Amino acid sequence: MNLRPSEKISVTELNRGLNYVIADGLSAEAMVVFTSGTFLTAMAIHMGATNFQLGLLAALPTFTTIFQLASIWLVQRWNNRKAITSLFNLLARFPLIAIGVMPLMFRGTTTIQVLLVLLFFQHIFGDIAGASWNSWMKDLIPGERLGAFFSKRSRMAQTLNVTLSLATAMGIDYVKAHYPAHEITAYTTLFLAGGALGMISVFLLLRTPEPKPTPMDDKVLKLFGRSLKDNNFRNLLAFNSLWAFALNLATPFFAVFMLKTIGLPLSYVIGLGILSQLSSIAFIKLWGAYSDRFSNKTIINICAPLYITCIVAFAFTAMPASKLTAIILLGCIHVVTGLSTAGINLALSNIGMKLAPKNEAIVYISAKNMFVAFFSTIAPMVGGLLADFFAGHHISYQISFAGTTYTIIDLQGWNYFFIIGGTLAFASLQLLSKVKEVGEIKSKKVKMHMRAALRNKLRSNIGREFTDNLYAPSIAVRKNVSRLIKKTQLSPPK
């Protein structure tokens, strides 16, 4: 196990290393499922967390992004991203194991305050490791394979996420129903398992080769400032920041809207979320191939309008008189949301790596992550402040025809956020037009290519059988004519 960067990496070593990166992604994804999201929130609620403390838990991943600056300094000083990534990922796993072990060793010691402190350090160490890992992957993965590789990794990780989430949710529900006294033990056991899986991911990273990086000589803040002076990268930051703000102004309230305004059961909301994930899994391979063949910017130009349409469409899902109609509409929205976000998230990640100079990738990617995290954090806060204002405003427009009244527009409460969020997201696309990417192709040509590929696939799978059935009678006629010619000993015409 060599911790030093390699001057030259063979094709065999590269392929083996990429397999380790995929395996690392799967073990890390399992860790995330067990120690964050819905299960972390449920555990915090069970421990008696206040709304403010729940908000702190949600804000930790973005609040600690600023510590990526420390990663830049460490990479600059030691010039060994493999060692830095592995060390800080290892440190990030210890708080998770501590959360799992403490209730077993010291009953009653894991309070919500202790949980917040441990997770705070877990996110700090994880952000330092993550920035170093991004720079490492930028140099390790060939540019022409970037989209295909990360789409494969994301597809496998999402599939694992859906499977584990469902199985774990069923397990937690079983414990709550039959052994309610052991519910907190079930949650802490998840943290213990997550920490152990995280350790496996560190072992896999240690076996992954690292290309020797180009040293960075300038000071951290000067390097950070240089990324902001890059006009093309600054255009990407402007687009990505406004896009993140627009999405986080609306998307955090989707579940609230479906539960409170439409009145859907929680199981329906979870089911729609899974439907969106399955759609994302089905399409991410396609977007990965197209991002390598065409460009990431082209993928965004295709997928972003679809997602914006979904955001705006949410404002009208409470209007149908029939709840079944609303559920069908929501199902369609979630399918399109899944396929569009698969392309957008993949392209945004890849374009950041692609535009970053090879010797300063960690600085550029960290700058992008910090800006996006900042705007992603303030957007829900702005939404929360405006929630009361929009709750008291109502716009409705109806028409009557043949004695029947039809509602055309009915905006109130959260609906305004969806309209505003969609409008801001559309405005951000104007900023994307200023970003220049090598290999960029107009989205119109890509759409033509996609339609042609779909037609060819349909012809190969369905058309062959259809054609055989269509021409079967003429084939039989030709065979009969040939028999008749032979029988009458006539020569066939040339």
UniProtKB/TrEMBL annotation:
SUPFAM superfamilies hit by this protein: MFS general substrate transporter
Superkingdom of origin organism:
Bacteria
Asked whether the keyword Membrane is assigned, the reply is yes
Q: Where does the chain cross the membrane?
A: 21-46, 52-75, 87-106, 112-133, 154-172, 184-206, 236-259, 265-287, 299-318, 324-348, 369-393, 413-432
Keywords recorded for this protein, A-Z = Membrane, Transmembrane, Transmembrane helix
Under InterPro entries, the record lists: MFS, MFS_trans_sf, Sugar_transport-like
Q: Which Gene3D superfamilies does the UniProt entry name for this protein?
A: MFS general substrate transporter like domains
Give a GO molecular function annotation for the protein: transmembrane transporter activity
The record's PANTHER family line, in alphabetical order, gives: INTEGRAL MEMBRANE TRANSPORT PROTEIN-RELATED, MAJOR FACILITATOR SUPERFAMILY (MFS) PROFILE DOMAIN-CONTAINING PROTEIN
Name the record gives this protein: MFS transporter
